[in-house]
Amino acid sequence: MSIRMLPPTLVNQIAAGEVVERPASAVKELVENALDAGAGHIDVVLVEGGQALISVTDDGGGMTPGELSLAVERHCTSKLPDDDLVHIRHLGFRGEALPSIGSVARLTITSRPRGADSAWSLSVEGGAKGEPIPAAHPPGTRVEVRDLFYATPARLKFLKAPRTELSHAAEIVERLAMAHPGIGFSLSDGSRSILKLAAQKGEPAAARLTRLAAIIGREFEANAVRLEAERDGVKLTGWAGLPTFNKGNSTHQYLFVNGRPVKDRLVIGAVKGAYQDVLSHDRHPVVALFLELDSEAVDVNVHPAKAEVRFRDAGLVRGLIVSGIRHALAGAGHRASSTLGVAALGALGGTAAAQRPAFNYQWQPQQRPSSHQVQQAAQGFAPTGLAEALPGLSLPNLALPPSAPTETQPAELPELDYPLGAARAQLHDTYIVAETRDGLVIIDQHAAHERLVMERMKAAMAAGSVKTQTLLLPEVIDLGEAAAARVADAADSLAELGLMVEPFGPGAVVVRETPAALGECDVQGLVRDLADDLAEWGEALSLKDKLGDICATMACHGSVRAGRRLSVAEMNALLRQMETTPNSGQCNHGRPTHVSLRLSDVEKLFGRR
Questions:
Q1: Are residues 158 and 152 in contact, defined by beta-carbon separation less than 8 angstroms?
Q2: How many structural domains compose the chain?
Q3: Do the domain assignments include residue 407?
Q4: Do 83 and 54 reside in the same domain of the chain?
Q5: Same domain, 160 and 240
Q6: Domain boundary at 197, 217, 242, which?
């Protein structure tokens, strides 16, 4: 069989298989071209999911008749002025999109340069190029793609339902809109509007957050913290969702490199690593991250659809993302997702509506009890007869008024000015109820203390000053030979956290010291859980990378359990330390430590509003 050169039409169809996988791929290429042309507004229309028609209209720079003819030729581009594939400053730069689309569809381009007195139009059908002809069009460019894949019918059977294809295209437009908040976007199916985003002006960070909120949802704006970090010429900005504001999959992680939406495994792995000790392994954070770095430090030419990139210094980028997100989350302190209270009220509202009696009633406000009376009631509910305080908790004064107020002197209640308020009661020996100025807070005592213990252990480990407590009687634990060997091999790393273990005969280990931060804990259960963790991680992973998970396991065993009666002083000590501890809005598994309810919302449950 002799070697021959393939005809240009077939070459373009092969290229189309790489560049134009589905209608959304064509939308991506055309919208990127509009962005590169300096458009201020971009309109996208898809009929029948893009199979019948894809139309992209912009108000960018436009093209002359000569440029129109070149634009549909292979490897013709205006975006590599120096013929340099290293310094790439545009989204579309290969010169493959238009000829590839024209080889498998009916393509029409109508364009008018700014300042020109007329427009020109050019058509390509199944790879056959026509000549530019005069047309009517305002300054800018309109690209129409009709009957996609008509020239390659085999590709049609791989398309999904029109609604599915439209959703994929909408995702592409949304991601490009996130990266370019100063540009207006619209998307429709020819009969109804799917997306309409006005151009955002003003301060760049505020404009970007407004655009993100319009696409992801207002809940993201209320439950995300801003991050900004820079290291060795790499700048990271964006917003990281609170750990308690999470999703069941990673589709709500938006990653951008030099304004280009990407789905890079390195970045996704870095995000996962940043949240590993504040989020359960089966939940995923919501983030929008924007990386800016020199074009020489990133290769955007490693994927046919330019969906992936390669960093020259991958370790630097990963470290910047992990540290940037962790620093931002630590600054959030005790904040938890604001949607938790709404969800709780929704559940309560449904129950209350089902149980509410069918009659009208009136209510009269009662005189507010004094703080002294409330504290006495709380003490009666949670007696103080504990032999020991919670491990690591101090018992601060709450600055209560010196005496109960009289009927003519309103209660000042200064303790309510704390962010988490003042403890009033303990429910089922598990949940603390605190009163604030404008509502109440319900705290899961085990989840909250678990986070405090873990953060204390992490801080001590970072400072190299982990305090230990020697057991009066060393604890011998039978694990089986394989599990005992895994624990013994990890002894040095466990010692950094204050857990001193040694081999003790076949299939057993002995524990002589435990971290002081854990207080009195279940040593047997702790070591067995650690042995299970080590088996799950396997030998391929460095234990150093899993010290955070080990901290979480140890903190869980060293924390105050549900079912333990606490004194008012202990409850308030827990609240005060939550307010000053990073990441205390969620436990080590990503569950919320507290839920805040506004008084006005609670009153609605009882018909007072």
A1: no
A2: 3
A3: no
A4: yes
A5: no
A6: 197
pLDDT number for residue 82: 59
User: Are 444 and 587 in the same domain?
Assistant: yes
What residue ranges of the chain have pLDDT lower than 50? 351-389, 394-411, 539-546
Tokens 């996988």 belong to residue: 21
Residue 15: count of CB within 10 angstroms of its CB: 21
Q: Which H/E stretch holds residue 394?
A: none
Among residues 179, 197, 215, the one where a domain terminates is 197
DSSP state of 10: H
Q: How far apart are CA 299 and CA 295, in angstroms?
A: 7
Q: Which of 300, 225, 240, 299 has its CA nearest to residue 270?
A: 240
Do 214 and 171 share a structural domain?
no
For residue 489 the two structure tokens come to 């091999």
What range defines the domain where residue 425 resides?
369-398+412-609
Q: For residue 26, give Cα distances in angstroms to 173, 258, 319.
A: 11, 21, 35
- What is the reported pLDDT for 490? 85
Q: Output the pLDDT for position 406.
A: 40
8 A C-beta contact, residue 487 and residue 440: no
pTM above 0.70, yes or no: no
**Which pLDDT value is given to residue 310?**
82
A 10 A CB-CB count for 464 gives 7
Q: How many CB atoms lie under 10 A from the CB of residue 249?
A: 9
Reduced to 3 states, what is the DSSP secondary structure of residue 459?
helix
Is 313 in the same domain as 445? no
Q: Can you tell me the distance from the alpha carbon of 239 to that of 246, in angstroms, rounded to the nearest whole number?
A: 14
Query: Are 111 and 208 within one domain?
Result: no
Give buried/exposed letters for 59-98 (b at 16+ CB in 10 A, else e). Answer: bbbbbebebbbebbeeeebbebeeeeeeebebbbbbbbbb
Q: What CATH number did the domain enclosing 66 receive?
A: 3.30.565.10
Instruction: Mark whether 381 and 493 lie in a shared domain.
Output: yes
Total length of the chain: 609
- pLDDT digit string (tens) for 63-108? 999 999 988 887 776 655 555 555 566 676 555 788 888 888 899 9
Query: What single-letter DSSP state applies at residue 184?
Result: E
pLDDT at position 181 = 95
pLDDT of 135 reads 94
